């Protein structure tokens, strides 16, 4: 009556030595820190999976004045590396590390992946405008007129950073442009 299945489910919630070794190799976390993150993750996600709804709920705690739903769609899809509709502990900790521990290039690369919704290696004006709108929603920004219009901001940003002249940003243009412009860097990668 499910004895084997329930044992396997329990085992998948435990950190294996191989998993710890992989996480230590790909993050700056110690084994103790990995185990602490894991315990917290299981407290919040007893089944070992973070679904989109729970992900949004977590973001809402950090941004109570805003609407997290739109922004979380971008972030969730970026961190759900295997596209199974959930974020497991490994995906979660690698995402935390990439957005908090990496050097500036690493962190901007994660930002680029999040904003390249179509996955074509380019950020176009529509993708950027949609993302700016989602960021405004997240922080509760309702003034979207004049210079704050998401479409206008997207055009300005791409015009400023687009070296190739194709009205899109590739990863190199995005990273170089963000690194060289403190205002854009803060807007697109606020934790950098």
Automatic annotation (TrEMBL):
PROSITE patterns attached to this UniProt entry: EF_HAND_1, EF_HAND_2
PANTHER family: CALCIUM BINDING PROTEINS, NEURONAL CALCIUM SENSOR 2
Identification of the protein by name: EF-hand domain-containing protein
Residue ranges occupied by any EF-hand domain in the UniProt entry: 67-102, 103-138
InterPro entries xrefs: EF-hand-dom_pair, EF_Hand_1_Ca_BS, EF_hand_dom, Recoverin
Family designation: Belongs to the recoverin family.
Keywords assigned: Calcium, Metal-binding, Repeat
Residue spans crossing the bilayer: none
Pfam family of the protein (one): EF-hand_1
SMART domains from the UniProt entry: EFh
Single GO molecular function: calcium ion binding
């Amino acid at each position: 009556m499910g004895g084997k299945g329930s044992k396997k489910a329990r085992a998948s919630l435990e950190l294996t030595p191989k998993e710890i070794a992989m996480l230590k190799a790909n993050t700056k976390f110690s084994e103790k820190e990995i185990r602490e993150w894991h315990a917290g993750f299981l407290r919040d996600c007893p089944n070992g999976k973070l679904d989109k709804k729970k992900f949004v709920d977590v973001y809402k705690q950090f941004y109570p004045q805003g609407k997290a739903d739109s922004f979380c769609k971008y972030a969730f899809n970026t961190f759900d590396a295997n596209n199974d509709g959930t974020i497991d502990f490994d995906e979660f900790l690698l995402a935390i590390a990439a957005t908090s521990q990496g050097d500036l290039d690493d962190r901007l690369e994660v930002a680029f992946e999040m904003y390249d919704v179509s996955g074509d290696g380019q950020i176009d004006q529509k993708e950027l405008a949609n993302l700016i709108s989602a960021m405004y929603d997240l922080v509760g920004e309702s003034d979207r007129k004049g210079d704050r219009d998401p479409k206008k901001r997207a055009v300005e940003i791409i015009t400023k950073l687009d070296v190739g002249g194709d009205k899109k940003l590739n990863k190199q243009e995005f990273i170089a442009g963000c690194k060289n412009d403190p205002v854009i860097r803060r807007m697109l990668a606020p934790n950098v």
